[in-house]
Amino acid sequence: MNVLLTGASGLVGSHLLELLVASPQVSHIVIAARRSLPSHPKVTCIAAPELADALNQVATPVDLVFCCLGTTRHDAGGTQAFYAVDHDLVVLTGKTGLRLGAEKMLVVSAMGANPRSRIFYNRTKGLAEHALIEQAWPELVIARPSMLLGDRPKKRWTETLSAPFFKCLPGSLRAIKAADVARALMFNALSANKSAVVVRDSAQLSQDAQRYIV
User: Fold this and answer.
1) If you write DSSP's letter for every residue of 19-76 in order, what string do you get?
2) Closest residue by Cα to residue 85 from 3, 7, 160
3) Angle, alpha carbons 66-126-152 (nearest 5°)
4) For residue 201, which of 113, 91, 119 has the smallest C-alpha distance?
5) Which Pfam families does the entry link to (predicted)?
6) 39 exposed, middle or buried (CB, 10 Å; 0-12, 13-18, 19+)?
7) Does the global pTM surpass 0.70?
8) Are 126 and 91 in contact (CB under 8 A)?
9) pLDDT, mean of residues 108-112
10) Coil, strand, or helix at residue 119?
11) Are 173 and 146 in contact (CB under 8 A)?
12) Are 86 and 125 in contact (CB under 8 A)?
């Protein structure tokens, strides 16, 4: 099985890449990125200063697409730059996967994603989801985790302060380890969807992570 991955250097994407490399069911991983990543026999990294250019250069047929792209307005450098990553590049990842013949896409979105939300972050995530649904994937899995737990290269002070609170919340509101989101993505990638579009919240992702066996 050949896989296309974007967001491989991020919190969820880095965990997912490790699982993909270790999986006997994955034969080849194509990564589109803005910079080169450590080499591995199963991995081809296509890097370009602009991720859109890297995606447009991918020519290897794939079966699955994983999109783990995500940033903040602060890290991106403003509202427009944030939208370009969390909407435009997510949508382009989907278009690229379809161009390469993929039948299934899995994307990391966020709790509260809603194209009509008054909150810009949630609205952006919701609009990206809607655009992917409009692409009419045979199978589309949307992961909507709550706060992600894990070691980031750059600490986000808002997450550091609020993490203890989110760890105590019930069900789909509870924070989830990025490694568990990655395991949940693998579980859903290797499972047949019950419908064309499947949405998994934090509680469901935690259950899926426990069900994934390497």
Assistant:
1) HHHH-TT--EEEEEESS----BTTEEEEE-SSHHHHHHH--S--SEEEE-----HHHH
2) 7
3) 55
4) 113
5) NAD_binding_10
6) exposed
7) yes
8) no
9) 97
10) coil
11) yes
12) yes
> What is the set of domains in the chain, with CATH numbers?
2-211 (3.40.50.720)
Token pair for residue 174? 């509870």
Indicate if the alpha-carbon torsion angle 26, 32, 34, 36 is positive or negative. positive
Of residues 95, 74, 52, the one with CA closest to residue 157? 74
Tokens representing residue 170 in the block: 């019930």
Class of residue 89 by CB neighbours under 10 A (exposed 0-12, middle 13-18, buried 19+): buried
pLDDT tens digits for 15-61?
999 999 999 999 999 999 999 998 899 999 999 999 999 999 999 99
The token pair at 206 is 């935690």
Are 54 and 33 a contacting pair, CB within 8 Å? yes
| Long-range contacts, 166-175 (Cβ 8 Å, 24+) | 171/201, 171/202, 171/203, 172/111, 172/144, 172/146, 172/201, 172/202, 172/203, 172/204, 173/111, 173/146, 173/202, 174/146, 174/202, 174/203, 174/206, 175/146, 175/147, 175/148, 175/149, 175/202
205 touches 184 (CB < 8 A): yes
Task: Tell me the one-letter amino acid at 213.
Answer: I
Cα separation of 130 and 85, whole Å?
15
